[in-house]
Input
Amino acid sequence: GFSVYSELVPGCYDIHFEKANHQIKGAPQMLTWQLAQRLLKQGGELMNREQDMNEEGLRRAKQSLDPVRQLARLLLTRKPGA
Output
């Protein structure tokens, strides 16, 4: 598997996406664990993970990581006439 991420601010990393072979039991979890270990070595304290897109399995996986907090999803719209 692999992960693509970038540093947002010192100590906080944005995880753009992760891909793992789901046919191998535990591969996605191991990928996340390995990424967390790598980010800790780089001085990371927080991970901003991808949206759960209302998928129950992804939501449960994110909750299992014991998040500091979860932010509400927001929608940006243009003002009429702007």
